[in-house]
Amino acid sequence: QLVTHRPCYTTLHFPMILSYLWVEMDYDFKTKLAAERERVEDLFEYEGCKVGRGTYGHVYKAKRKNGKDEKEYALKQIEGTGISMSACREIALLRELKHPNVIALQKVFLSHSDRKVWLLFDYAEHDLWHIIKFHRASKANKKPMQLPRGMVKSLLYQILDGIHYLHANWVLHRDLKPANILVMGEGPERGRVKIADMGFARLFNSPLKPLADLDPVVVTFWYRAPELLLGARHYTKAIDIWAIGCIFAELLTSEPIFHCRQEDIKTSNPFHHDQLDRIFSVMGFPADKDWEDIRKMPEYPTLQKDFRRTTYANSSLIKYMEKHKVKPDSKVFLLLQKLLTMDPTKRITSEQALQDPYFLEEPLPTTDVFAGSQIPYPKREFLNEDEPEEKTEKVFKLLKEQNHHTEHGGSPRLLRLKPLHQLCRRHNSGGSHQQQRQVKLQE
């Protein structure tokens, strides 16, 4: 009788048996894994050491708790729960990519309790956004301190070297900007460039569908190539080269070359009138002979409707750079011109750029971009843990009011100056670097 009450496994469906076994095995596996899993909070001291904040999450300066290792690390906490597609892409690429000028992923931590993902990197004390900001501030204080030309050359060479490695391995970065170009502080890799934030990166060896279908709009507006703004369907390595050209110009002048009032807003429409207007105001309107395929761009009809060639007749890169004391016959200008070529098919490649005569004249590029000199740039400041969302909203509200006031004949200066100046002071006492940047550039 006892036997008859036992489940007869010969009469049960085989999948049901597997499901019973899987539940038991899965529970045991998870329990064992949770017990063995290393927890970030047990290994690292990082509370109150937040140095970065953005849409991706938060970055903390961290040290090991055991005291055996005095090395400083960067802990990047991915926003949200679980692993997003962007985080998956970044982790997958960084696990494979190994180059002195690409940030190295040391380890990935998965927190079982709150489903957070942490990425561990070597800590970089500086980045180009803060370095350029330092020099821009010196200019504003009437004590101009130009970036040393040798340092500019070393920075550019290492950026190109890192991007050449990515491109040689069929990877587009797609979000190059000063904030994503890190520079190591004191230590064994002093003054070395590290290209970071691979969340937008893509493999492009044999795309099954147009890249524009996957992410209609990528790259921060100011560093976005004109073909992207005109809706290019199969963009190439040339978009990274354009962004490098923008960064190069910014290093030479301490000003974003294509600074536009609009903020970095995600939209499904790639066409951006104000950004194109800014590019043409610096570069001039592209002649048909200079960019023959411009007529094939999806947004070309809109371009014809919204723009007049004659408006930009007196604009050129030569005139813009001459204002910043860069001579048109200098090797530095000639390379910049090749990087900022409007036609992506004629734009120089990273490999060609690395062989440019600019890098053969003195001073030669160095592994330590500071060339052994004392580093004048301050260390990163720690940010408040609380996210000051209301301050960001105030900034956008003021900018909206400013635009409305200007459209109705008012003076944008009168409306803008006082409230934004006050906001700047409040941000400097605890707001995020991103918000400080938005306010400062609007002034």
TrEMBL record:
Domain of life, per lineage: Eukaryota
InterPro entries according to UniProt: CDK, Kinase-like_dom_sf, Prot_kinase_dom, Protein_kinase_ATP_BS, Ser/Thr_kinase_AS
GO terms assigned for molecular function: ATP binding; cyclin-dependent protein serine/threonine kinase activity
Keywords of this entry: ATP-binding, Kinase, Nucleotide-binding, Nucleus, Serine/threonine-protein kinase, Transferase
PROSITE patterns: PROTEIN_KINASE_ATP, PROTEIN_KINASE_DOM, PROTEIN_KINASE_ST
Binding site for ATP: K76
E.C. number: 2.7.11.22
Keyword Methyltransferase: no
Main location: nucleus
Domain Protein kinase per the UniProt entry, residue ranges: 45-359
Subcellular location: Nucleus
Gene3D superfamilies: Phosphorylase Kinase, domain 1, Transferase(Phosphotransferase) domain 1
GO cellular component: cytosol; nucleus
Coiled coil: none
UniProt xrefs under Pfam families: Pkinase (PF00069)
Catalytic activity, as annotated: L-seryl-[protein] + ATP = O-phospho-L-seryl-[protein] + ADP + H(+); L-threonyl-[protein] + ATP = O-phospho-L-threonyl-[protein] + ADP + H(+)
Family to which this protein belongs: Belongs to the protein kinase superfamily. CMGC Ser/Thr protein kinase family. CDC2/CDKX subfamily.
Name of protein: cyclin-dependent kinase
Organism the protein comes from: Neogobius melanostomus (round goby)
